[in-house]
Amino acid sequence: MSTSTESEGRSTSEARARLLDAATRIFYAEGIHSVGVDRIIAEAQVTRATLYRHFTGKEDLILAYLQLADRAIRGQVAAVRAQELAAGDTVRAVARSIADGIRSTGFRGCAFLNAAAEYPDLAHPVHQAVLAHRQWFLETSTELLAQAGCADAGAAGRHFVMLRDGAMASGCLSDPALVTETFLQGVDDLLQRHATR
């Protein structure tokens, strides 16, 4: 039998999840600056007091949105690594997961690049969250490419991130099928170019 405290905890976490879900959907589809807290409150069907019980304000909600996006991408990479493929195939599988995202319905580019464009001040917490995610992604890409036998894994990692950034930017501006085909071919070329001779 659940206690009233357990019920309140469940309803509190459900309200937070609804707020974060609404913010994630709207921020990604429409941009961050263009969306006010009143819109998020209405979409989440909660009160203003409930929003401020879970988040100190809009900036805190934005950071939670980016943390959620960060966890999702880390989860995709972890799922690929768990398959224990050959090192080069692991890099290709990570690239395919990126390509799948680009081809998905409602794709609007990279949540982190979009957020950085709206928050260009390097010292702003939102920009700092973007940089932290990108640093992790660069380090992870570099590690995977080193395991794949790339002679200069640092250069290969930077190259991979730039290919990914270009594909993410192009994927919502032109034909996603062509963009992802070009991206995946670029990753294959990258692996061959940087392979240890």
From TrEMBL:
GO molecular function: DNA binding
Segments forming a coiled coil: none
Matching Pfam families: TetR_N
Domain HTH tetR-type, first and last residues per copy: 13-73
Keywords annotated in UniProt: DNA-binding, Transcription, Transcription regulation
Record has Cell division as a keyword: no
Domain of life from the UniProt record: Bacteria
DNA-binding feature ranges: 36-55
Protein known as: TetR/AcrR family transcriptional regulator
